[in-house]
Every structure is written in C-alpha cells, then in structure tokens.
Amino acid sequence: MPDKTIVMTGAAGGVAGMLRPLLRERYKLVLSDRSAAPDDLAPQEEWREADLTDPDAMAALMAGADGLLHLGGQSVEADWPTVHAANIEGLYNAYAAARDAGVPRIVFASSNHAIGFYPRTRRIGVDEAVRPDGFYGVSKAFGEALGSLFADKFGVRVMSIRIGNIAARPADHRRLSIWQHPEDLAQLITIGLEHPDVHHAIVYGASHNERSWWDNSAAYALGYAPQHRAEDHVDFAMAEQAKLQPDPVGDRFQGGGFCSDGFAGDLDRSLSARLTR
To answer: Most buried of 12, 21, 83, 100, CB within 10 angstroms?
Structure first.
C-alpha cells in the first residue's frame, strides 16, 4: 500500500476521474466533493463528502494528510458570487486547513484562463502579468497569489499548474496549443508533491505541443518530461475545428471563448497591449 496520503478535492469532476487511476498507484487518496461517493472506489481510495465553504469540514478533511491536490471549486465561468464562494472563500478554507494541519505540500489546479487575454501571437512564460479572461480566471490568479503567500509566510510548498485542456487528445485547433494528456498531468502533480526544490512554482499544464504559446521551462527545470505530443492528433483536431463557427474575438486570444463571452472592450487595444509584472 502507498505510504503517503493525498487529499484530492473536486474528486467528482472529470479531471479527477482521469487522474485517480494514475495517482492511486503511488498514493493513498482521500477523495472529497459535495456529492455522495461513487461506486468505483479502489482499496487505496477513501471518500469524504465535504463542502469547500465549510471551514470545519475542511479542517477534518486535512487531518493526517501528506499533501493536498486542490481540483475543487467552480470549474467554468459564472457570476461573481458563485465564483467567489467556491474559488475565493473555498480555496482559502482549503489552504488554511492544510496549513493548520501541517500538510507540507499543495498542488493547485490553476488555469490557462488566468492568462487568457494574451494574444495567440505572444509566447509567454510565468513571469508576465496575469491577464484573466473572466471571473473564473481572476479566481485562478488569486489562487496563485495565495499559494505564493502560503509558501513565503507559512513554509508550505506549493505548485500552481496553469492547466490547459486535459483529454485523451486535443479536440480543436486551439487545444493543439494548450492540450495535456492525463498521464503528463499526473507526472507534473507528482513533481509538485515530491520535488525537494519546490517553494512556490507556477508551471503550465501542457504536453509536448509544438504549437504551444507557453514557455514551460519552469516545469522542465523541475524534471518534467511530457510523454505525449499534440501533433500526433492534428488530423482529428483540425477536422473537429472545421465543425466550429468562427469567433472574431475568441479566435484571437489564448483563452478562446472565455474572452468573447460578454466582450465589450477595444479589440485592437487588447491585442496590442504588452503587460509586465
């Protein structure tokens, strides 16, 4: 049996479902979500129903854990009260409970939507300013900042992974640039949970994507070596792209449709703006 216990929030979600069979070979998983337990739990898995907005539930969840993999929260764009409750207050509750329980490691599922308003013509690393493309993206930028604080002030080792799109293969043209195979994400999570040099690391959740808009050298410096290539699926992705309607705004930015949703700005100015921290 694995000797390390990892709490996984958001365990009823699609990404968690892809990760569980990969991570339970290495860790005992304490799975948590607001729903009842699924019927496919393995011997290395335990289910605990809990809500991120309940600090007491979070405190009980973190007891005895060796690490937290935080996938929980609002997973798509929504109104501010919804995002705030799950991804601001809920995230803080999870982080604070982990700190108070002496959990030494946190891996946070950030998102490409924290930098979604960068044009597709820009290649960026992790040192440029955040450019969120919605309230959801704002909450992910907040999560990265909170991780930095908990690393510096409280000594928790934190990795924030700006996840692109997790799937068996990239589903359209945009995702040829941002796709990550579940096996590569599991590898990156393991680095976050175990690498001795992690303080607060921001990395991109992407496989070997020749069309990538991201410089992922921060992940490679920690030993990340993706095993999957987006170009192996280019015919499928482009065939699926041909079924989609053009998006005059979203097709220009890395965040895609999140950028065009409710857009009322100056397109030329947003495309030409060059931001630094």
So the answer is: 83
| Residues in the chain, pLDDT under 50 | none
What does the block give as tokens for 261? 């949703």
Render pLDDT for 52-61 as a digit per residue (tens, 0 to 9).
999 999 999 9
Radius of gyration of the chain (CA): 18
Q: Spell out the domains of the chain, with CATH numbers in brackets.
A: 5-272 (3.40.50.720)
**pLDDT given for residue 21 in this prediction:** 97
pLDDT above 70 coverage of the chain, percent = 99
The DSSP line for 234-264 is HHHHHHHHTTSPP-TTGGGBTTTHHHHTT--
Active site residue 136: yes
Concatenated DSSP letters for 93-131?
A: HHHHHHHHTT--EEEEEEEGGGSTTSBTT--B-SSSPP-
Residue 176 in tokens? 């040829």
Do 47 and 41 meet the contact criterion of CB atoms below 8 Å apart?
A: yes
pTM of the model: 0.97
How many CA atoms lie within 13 Å of 86's alpha carbon, on the beta-carbon side? 22
Q: Which two tokens stand for residue 15?
A: 């990404």
Backbone angles phi, psi at 257, to 5 degrees: -60, -25
DSSP state of 214: B
Helices (H), the chain: 14-23, 55-62, 80-83, 90-100, 135-154, 175-178, 182-194, 217-220, 234-241, 257-260, 267-272
Show the CA angle centred on residue 246, arms to residues 75 and 268, nearest 5°.
85
Paired tokens of 51:
């809500």
